[in-house]
Specification:
479 residues; six-stranded parallel β-sheet; 22 strands; metal-binding
Length: 479
């Protein structure tokens, strides 16, 4: 946590309306509004979606102003919500993936997000069609050449500070910076300018799960009104912009979007997460050239010193070699040093034990080693391999599929580097979508308010969603 961050949170929570009442449209009204919105989207020529924390609550990431929101709990002096999974393993919600399908169909033209959870980008929304106004906890950028790096781990800083890594672009090498804004930071023009442009062009700006209270971001949707466009708001709480909206829907975002997709006769695609890791073998001949001193490392594809968050431990065994002692590596960096006769080939089996939040518990990789034989170098078409892995994971409805995507040799010191891609999560939204439609009534509640004793009911989560950890360092944009 950066210095003074908690104090800034306290200041903002006093400014905002925390612990707000949550409203639910009656079931018949909700269905009528969903039908109305579906017709509007079908006729739309330039749909823009503006998102806040409410689209990520079903992923296990808490919001701010709800009964169990971060600012509500802080104001009441209560502990922040605990979660069983780390932030970096959060999977996109039904809504995230529905937006991906709408974009692929050419209906959705642009997404503007106040969230820093990176779920829009991870879901598959193209970077050029996404403005992340408050940054991305998993993104680093080069201040010199502008290159962006989307990580599988949380970047360790906030406030546009330098990180421990450098740009890998040839002849650049500038130290990278995080992208998450601190309170005093202005919204970056790179994100703000296209967001403003698309809002002015929009015939509909659909606001999902946002209180529309944080300036200047909250004023962006209103720019559509000047060109004759309309604003639609889907949120559980009332917002300051409700009076200017053509349609206001009080209901869970996932339920509303599930209903929209059903009305449009569109399927919500599954989410398949593919992570990368490297197996690196560094070798050095002894002076008499009879032995090889070698080091095995299981490393991040983002750099040998980068975190490898989805692997908990590595168990190493050797086939048909009783004189080779097995090893368990349970601390990063995962590194093993050994000495082997130069003329002896052998085969290792690496059992990768995955961390919480992954859809499979472990994976075994066979690694043949022969120091006398030169390693074949290649670089496959990564997009093609990724698509094949996704297709297989969806058909089999499980994860664990893997493939080698690159192998290269570094001469000094002599190192063989093999990069693997592996499917670590598969989420199907069909059942979740049906459950959302079946429970479209929102129950009998019309409104709900958190009380000071904390006994107010918490938000419902879809059965297929997973909880994830939310750190206070990363809540800057979940508004």
């Amino acid at each position: 946590m950066s210095l003074g961050y908690a104090e800034k949170l306290s200041y903002i929570e006093d400014v905002g309306n925390v612990g707000m009442v949550e409203y639910f449209d009656p079931s018949h009204v909700l269905r009528e509004k969903i039908d109305q919105l579906a017709i509007m989207i079908k006729k739309s020529k330039h749909l823009v979606v503006f998102t806040g924390a409410g689209i990520s609550t079903s992923c296990g990431i808490p919001d701010f102003r709800g009964p169990k929101g971060i600012w509500t709990l802080q104001r009441e002096g209560k502990a922040l919500p605990e979660a069983s999974l780390p932030f970096h393993r959060a999977a996109p919600s039904l809504t995230h993936m529905a937006l991906v399908e709408l974009e692929k169909a050419g209906i959705l033209k642009f997404v503007i997000s106040q969230n820093v959870d990176g779920l829009h980008l991870r879901s598959g929304i193209p970077r050029e069609k996404l403005a992340e106004l408050h940054g991305n906890s998993f993104m680093e950028t080069c201040p010199s050449c502008g290159a962006e790096y989307f990580r599988d781990f949380e970047v360790e800083t906030i406030g546009l500070k330098e990180t421990s890594r450098r740009c890998s672009v040839t002849k650049c090498g500038t130290r990278l910076k995080d992208t998450v804004l601190d309170w005093e930071d202005a919204l970056p023009p790179k994100e703000m300018n296209p967001a403003e442009k698309h809002c002015k062009q929009a015939d509909i700006v659909l606001c999902l799960g946002t209180s529309l209270q944080i300036t200047p971001a909250c004023n962006l949707p209103l720019k559509a009104l000047r060109g004759g466009g309309k604003v639609v708001i889907v949120n559980l709480q009332k917002t300051p912009k409700d009076k200017k909206a053509s349609l206001v829907i009080h209901g869970f975002v996932d339920k509303v979007i599930a209903g929209i997709m059903d009305q449009l006769n569109m399927q919500i695609p599954p989410f398949v997460r593919i992570d990368l890791f490297q197996i690196i073998i560094v070798q050095a001949l002894s002076n008499d050239r009879r032995y090889v001193n070698w080091t095995l490392q299981v490393a991040s594809a983002h750099g040998q010193r980068a975190a490898l968050p989805f692997i908990k431990s590595v168990e190493i065994s050797f086939l048909d070699r009783e004189d080779y002692k097995a090893a368990i590596l349970d601390k990063q960096p995962f590194r093993l040093k050994r000495r082997t006769a130069y003329n002896k080939a052998f085969e290792m089996v690496l059992k990768l034990v995955f961390s919480d939040g992954c859809g499979c518990s472990s994976l075994e990789i066979d690694v043949p080693v022969d120091f006398k034989v030169s390693t074949d170098c290649f670089d496959f078409d990564k997009d093609y391999i990724f698509q094949k892995l996704r297709d297989k994971a969806v058909v089999e409805s499980r994860c664990g599929q893997n493939a080698v995507i690159e192998r290269k040799t570094i001469l000094t010191p002599r190192s063989d580097v093999t990069t693997y891609a592996i499917v670590t999560n598969v989420v199907q939204y069909g059942k979740t979508c049906k459950a959302a439609l079946d429970s479209l009534s929102n129950g009998d509640l019309r409104k709900r308010k958190a009380n000071v004793t904390g006994t107010g009911s918490s938000r419902k989560r879809s059965k297929g969603s997973s909880k994830c950890k939310s750190r206070s360092e990363n809540i800057r944009g979940h508004m």
